[in-house]
Design a protein that fits this description.
By secondary structure, the chain is α/β, with parallel strands linked by helices. It is built from nine helices and 15 strands. It has an eleven-stranded mixed sheet, sandwiched between helices. A two-stranded antiparallel ribbon has the order 5-8.
Length: 389
């Protein structure tokens, strides 16, 4: 295991970091080719272009009532509820790296699948996916997933020795670190540690990433608690809080559903969740009889039928978000409908939540994140910051 200590200060370093991330991606087996088991010849990959998702109207009958914001603005930090972002997404001032604010330290290290007792590694053959079960179209049969090693990158942002922290998926997330530098300097969020964890490789059913992020259980939160956080404390010289109100999760797409899964199955560990284009759809694999519709179950059954949990949730979806991106046609693969349904059930159960429907925006839209991330983080920690003052 290797660790290095760096500080974000110059454009040159940013360029070198991006280059290093690209190299590590290749080394880490995130390329489907690199993840193949030795001695096997993968079938030729045939990529079929996904159709462009349709543009959905936030005022569609059945969608949640929402406040239309002036173009280019974001929801108020102190407000719960549903909002519609206009089509222009300019970066928030806090997303620009500044040299006149204190810079957090970034610690980088890798974790090998060989050292994990929770996720020993898996991958799906490139150019393959799965087929819907003829007896149950909501269940996907995947026959090309197999054991495969990986290296996972972890980047940790440390503003000092602060105890509050945020766990992010699909790391490293440099934009998050830039936002925190500025928000902490402006005292808009507490001085918190950000732990940005890379996934184990691949995507969706049959992959390591899909296993980690789309599985409806407490397993990934337990992996973070048992295998990641102890390394962060020892390598980065911090003591992380055990207070769930001072712990947050964050992610986009399946990383977003994973963020909520962590808090839902372990509310004693996490109370704050931030998601972009959350995959609250039927993408769990392997199949589970307890939650046969995967994360679609959140708005279909779990949230409506259970007492409200102490979770504060910020979520976003774009008007051109994912729509039936794979072979399954089970009525549970529209990301817009899924997030709209989430807003409905969260409101019905009186959760503290803020939902932004973004016009002119695709899946995990970069421009929308650049525009909204500072406000989202400030809203997420708003009650905690008030208590701290």
């Amino acid at each position: 295991m290797k660790i290095e200590k760096t500080t974000i200060k110059t454009a040159k370093l940013v360029f070198l970091t991006a280059w290093l991330v690209a190299v590590l991606n290749l080394m880490a087996g995130t390329s489907p080719v690199a993840a193949q088991t030795l001695g096997t010849t993968p079938p030729a990959a045939t990529r079929t272009a996904r159709p462009m998702p349709p543009t959905r109207d936030p005022h569609t009958p059945g969608f949640v009532p929402a406040t239309e914001l002036p173009d280019g603005t974001v929801p108020p930090v102190a407000a719960d509820g549903n909002f519609i972002l206009g089509p222009t997404h300019r970066p928030a001032p806090e997303m620009i790296a500044l040299t006149n604010v204190p810079q957090g330290t970034i610690y980088n290290f890798t974790m090998s699948s060989a050292d994990s007792k929770v996720y020993p590694g898996s991958a799906r053959n490139p150019g393959t996916f799965g087929t819907p079960d003829p007896a149950d179209p909501a269940r996907l049969v995947v026959t090309t997933s197999h054991p495969a090693p990986y290296l996972r990158r972890v980047a940790v942002y440390v503003p000092g020795t602060a105890a509050p922290f945020l766990v992010g998926a699909d790391g490293p997330d440099r934009a998050l670190f830039t936002a925190l530098n500025n928000l902490i300097a402006e005292k808009k969020v507490p001085a918190l540690v950000a732990i940005s964890i890379g996934n184990g490789g691949g995507d969706a059913q049959g992959s390591e990433r899909g296993l980690e992020y789309d599985t409806m259980s407490g397993r990934y939160a337990e992996f973070v608690e048992q295998e990641v956080l102890p390394l962060v404390e020892s390598k980065c010289h911090v003591i992380l809080t055990r207070d769930p109100d001072a712990r947050a999760t964050m992610g986009g797409s399946s990383g977003g559903s994973c963020a909520l899964i962590m808090a839902w199955y372990h509310p004693e560990l996490y109370h704050r969740v931030l998601t972009y284009s959350g995959t609250f759809v039927n993408q769990q694999w392997p199949h589970s009889n307890e939650t046969p519709h995967g994360a679609w179950e959140f708005h279909e059954r779990l949230i409506p039928e259970n007492p409200a949990k102490p979770i504060r949730l910020w979520l976003e979806a774009g008007d051109r978000d994912n729509f039936n991106p794979n072979a399954m046609r089970d009525g549970m693969h529209d990301w817009v409908v899924a997030n709209e349904n989430m807003a409905k059930v969260l409101a019905a159960k009186n959760y503290h939540y803020q939902f932004s429907f973004a016009r002119n925006a695709g899946h995990t839209d970069r421009a929308v994140k650049q525009q909204t991330l500072p406000e989202a983080l400030e809203w997420l920690w708003h009650d905690y910051a008030s208590a701290a003052k």
